[in-house]
Structures are given as C-alpha cells and as structure tokens.
Amino acid sequence: MSCPALPNTANSSNSGGITIFTANSLKAIAMALMFLDHFAVVFLSNEPLLRNLLRFAGRIVAPVICFFIVEGYYHTSSKRKYTLRLFALALVSHIPFNITFGHSFSPFEATSVIWALALGLVALAALKSSLNIVLRLAILAACCAAAYTANWNFVAVLWIAALGLFRGNFKRQMLAFCAVGILFHLSIVYLRFGLAHWYQLGIFLAIPLLAMYNGKLGKKSKARAYSFYIFYPAHLLLLYFWNSLV
What is the pTM of this model? Predict the structure, then answer.
C-alpha cells in the first residue's frame, strides 16, 4: 500500500491497556513499514516468501495513516488548509508513485494513496456537517467513486469515514475498521486473487498497535510535523532511481 500526511495530534480515542506509543512513534513505524513494503514490491518479485512477509507487515500502514488523518481532522487549526495540503501532496506524489510501480501518468489508471486520503477527509467533513443526510451520503459515495483508481481506493475513504464517526470510542472504531476491511477489501481481494494474497490479513495487525497509542504527540518540531509530506514522494523516487541502477 501505501500512505499521507500523518498530522500532529495530542489526544487519543483509546483508553486503558498498555499505551506506550506517541503519535510521532507511530508515524515513524508507519514510514519504516511503508518503505519495506514498497521495497518488497520493487525488488523482491523473485523472493515470494520474503516479499509477502514484508507486505504482510506493510498492511499496517494504511489503517494507521487513516487513523491519524481522522485525528488531524479534529486537531487541525484549519480543516481547509489541511485538506489542501493533502491534495497538494497527492499532486506531487502522482508521478513518483506511477513511475516507481510501472503505471502510466494517467490518473485514470492509477494514483497514490494520498488521493484517497484527501477524499476521505472530504467525506468525513461532509458526514460531520449539517448538510441533509442524503447529500452527505451522496458526497461520501462521490468520494468513493473518485478514489477508485487510487492505491487503497474507496477502502481508505470508508476507513476514514468510519474511524471519524466513531472517534471517542476505540472499540467501536476498531469494529467499524474491521467491518470495512472485511466487506470492502478482504472479500474482494480473495474473490479475485484467492489465497495468494494472504498477506492482506496484515491489516488487523494495526489494531494492537493503535491500542498502544498514548494520545500524546511526542517532541514537537516543524521537521517532524512535515516529515511525511517529504518522505512519501522522496522514498518513491529513491526506490525508482535505485531500481534503475541495479
């Protein structure tokens, strides 16, 4: 998969249990696993077992990022600027994503997960607005449709919507996350590809990881705050040029 801007957050919807990870810690874990996931896709086609094991661990990334997109929605000082930053990152990341994974430049063939995350943020804002319920659901459906060619497509949109609607109740958040993951991701993947994509079950590894989130940001700095915005397209370009040299 892949993933977006992991915004700063100071609160958590989780309570109880062992809470040892700050938001910065989870962002760092997500970025490391993302790199390994993408490394496996680019370089390990001839090593199926190792490739799938790394991809299994990499399935953690999308749920974690969707969780923090939601946290960012509730904590940002400007939802408009936050949304525009995600769309800008989606634009910047489009070419690095497509050249790294061998797609054409057309957004109608494929684009990065950032596009789906930005649309998920729009969908959440609509669902939390005072608009007529029919209009809110229509905007959600439109965002899902618009995310179809993105990495994690409408699944990321629905995860953000579900996690946002149940924010404040971690158990309900995770139940909603599982429902979306099973109905709109795993069932479709296994119907199309069978057990060859067993690594997709790794999405559930995100649950114990998020359960250990302590609701704190960690050390504040502008470099940390914008690290993912830089990391996402930069690591894709690194993999592309690395692959070109070997």
Answer: 0.92
